[in-house]
Known about the structure:
Elements: H1 24-48, H2 55-69, H3 76-106, H4 110-116, H5 119-129, H6 132-149
Amino acid sequence: MLCGLPPPERSMTAVAPPARRATWFSWLLLLLGAFGFAAVWVLASLYTGRQLGWMAVLGALDIAWMLRLGGWQRGWGRMLAGVGATAAIVIASNWFIAATQLGGMLGLDPWDSAMRLGWHHAWILVTLANHAMDAVWITVGLLVAAWLSR
């Protein structure tokens, strides 16, 4: 109110924060989260001697957390990335579980066995090892990934 000037008007509209985009660090964090969790799943499965299909739900939770930590913008892109990364965890885990168990019988280390395992043979081994409840857990994991990553 100095010199008779009216006080400056303040706008009551909220200023939206700038949209965050996925950077190379966001992608790196997503890849490390996915493949790191797949390694944990493989080790837990080999230790227990079971497929542990319920780990898909924990993988979905891990991926949703990694997407938020990486600053991914909400929406369809983040949801598709979450479902895709969870599916990659499921596929990589089942592939390496089958390859490691088969390679152990043949005297191969896990990496060599995984590189030599064919798609058809892997599909047969995975369908024989997974039960109906494992398929239910994997489906629930993909749904949780879609829901929490949106």
